[in-house]
Specification:
- With 449 residues, the protein is α/β, with parallel strands linked by helices.
- It has 4 domains: 81 residues, Orthogonal Bundle (434 Repressor (Amino-terminal Domain)); 162 residues, Rossmann fold (3-Layer(aba) Sandwich); 76 residues, no CATH class; 88 residues, Winged helix-like DNA-binding domain superfamily/Winged helix DNA-binding domain (Arc Repressor Mutant, subunit A), CATH 1.10.10.
- The longest helix has 21 residues.
- It holds the Pfam family HTH_31.
- This is XRE family transcriptional regulator.
């Protein structure tokens, strides 16, 4: 006597799950995108579930969808039972082959194009080492989570490791076997133990199958490149995705710059669908569910988003202040002293403040780069172009080009498309933190420079 479902029974159970999800979503008038925003699950994952393509949905995924649908106990139990019926097939049992990424804490805003590119490159094996770089709080971890979830949906095991001291912006999957396997890989790449001591567990568990190893918040200076080369030889299908403050700068590395969200200048018209505005509105609903933004409110929100350069963590921090002030007051503070709003109204136990993180990034830059940033800020213009860097530094064109690239990679400047030309903006959070980063090194150049 067997207790598992046949393949046909498993398919039917998953199809029933999809029908339930779609029925609840339509009943309360949500689109797939709106449900994705509420549940923090990707639109693609919801679409696959509703079509019955996701053969083994995770328990966390179903719980988040049930939360997004605001299901009562009976409807939630029906969803969970449909999942259990689908999991009783021969593939039941958690192994490294189906190791899953953690569940995100926040919805994905925009980034679909970036996630699609990363997913395609890592799934096809075109790239085997990708490093996501950008300023702290810009959304590197959230993009890595989305990419990992898509690859997991495509059948690739995902081993996720959050580096010690990094802010864990997700809900880890409590599986001791997978956690031990991931720790072995991370420790090996960090150089722990003998140089010739390759841990047997990764190769034994994964063999020549494909797998994604994510090291979130890692310091590339702690990683040993020859060990990665050996690990990839032992596990030919292994891909490595890093989120870091700076590149590893090793052969074969694919550098992927994560910029802030698009926040167009509202002077050209308010765009409520702009990614930064959508993020702010989502945070607004959390702190002020009673507030329904009118036309004037949306104009204030669009200006705050533009002034804070669409930086996700800065926007979340600013939105948290709406518990003690209104939108018009918030806009006035952002205009006069944005530094006061760059940390959320919290108890401070969520890790270093945004200002502290930005200050550390600035302190790690060469003194000449900081002097250039100070000169650009002193000039008073919202944007700068290559010619401004040539004028302020007096350096040759190749040097100036490399300096701008360095600033982009560190995340302290972002490309600007408002004027339809190749221009850049020094982020507001950087302008706020710059005077405290290294006072002696940031004296503004003279007007004649």
């Amino acid at each position: 006597m067997t207790t598992g479902l046949s393949p046909e029974g498993t398919t039917a159970a998953i199809a029933a799950l999809g029908t339930l999800i779609r029925g609840h979503r339509i009943r309360i008038g949500l689109t797939q995108r709106e449900l994705a925003d509420l549940s923090t699950i990707s639109v693609r994952a919801i679409r696959d579930l509703e079509k019955g393509k996701a053969q083994r949905p995770r328990t966390d995924t179903i719980r988040l969808i049930a939360d997004g649908l605001r299901l009562g106990p009976r409807a939630r139990t029906a969803l969970e039972e449909a999942v259990r019926r689908g999991h009783r097939g021969p593939a039941a049992g958690r192994t490294a082959e189906r190791a899953a990424p953690p569940a995100p804490l926040h919805p994905l805003i925009e980034r679909q194009a970036e996630a699609a590119v990363l997913t395609d490159e890592l799934r096809s094996g075109t790239e085997r080492l990708v490093t996501l770089v950008g300023l702290s709080g810009v959304g590197k971890t959230r993009l890595a989570l989305e990419t990992a979830a898509r690859l997991h949906d495509a059948g690739l095991p995902v081993l996720w490791h959050t580096a010690p001291g990094a802010v864990a912006d997700c809900l880890p999957d409590a599986d001791d076997t997978v956690a031990a396997l991931t720790a072995d890989c991370a420790d090996y790449l960090r150089g722990d133990g003998s140089a010739d001591d390759l841990p047997p567990s990764p190769a034994a568990a994964l063999g020549d199958r494909g797998a994604l190893l994510v090291l979130d918040g890692v310091d590339p200076a702690e990683l040993v490149f020859p060990r990665l080369a050996r690990l990839q030889r032992e596990i030919p299908g292994l891909r490595l995705l890093l989120t870091a403050a700076e590149p590893w700068n090793v052969p074969g590395e694919r550098l992927f710059l994560v910029s802030p969200l698009d926040a167009p200048d509202p002077a050209a018209g308010v765009r409520p669908e702009a990614p930064a505005v959508r993020l702010f509105l989502g945070r607004l609903r959390r702190v002020r569910p009673d507030l329904v933004p009118g036309e004037r409110d949306l104009a204030d929100i669009a200006w705050v988003c533009h002034r804070l350069d669409g930086h996700p963590l800065a926007l979340a921090a600013a939105a948290s202040w709406l518990t003690v002030c209104d939108l018009r007051t918030l806009r006035g503070i952002v205009d006069s002293d944005p530094a006061a709003l760059l940390d959320p109204l919290a108890d401070g136990r969520s890790g270093p403040s945004l200002q502290d993180r930005v200050a550390r990034t600035l302190a790690a830059l060469p003194a000449g780069h900081r002097q250039l940033l100070a000169g650009l800020c002193a000039a008073g213009a919202d944007e700068f172009v290559l010619e401004d860097v040539l004028r302020l530094t007096g350096g040759p064109l190749p040097h100036c080009g490399r300096v701008i690239r360095d600033l982009l990679i560190s995340g302290v400047v972002r490309p600007s498309t408002d004027g339809g030309r190749s221009a850049f903006r020094v982020l507001c959070v950087v302008r706020a933190a710059l005077p405290a980063a290294a006072p002696a090194a940031v004296a503004a150049p003279s007007a004649a420079a």
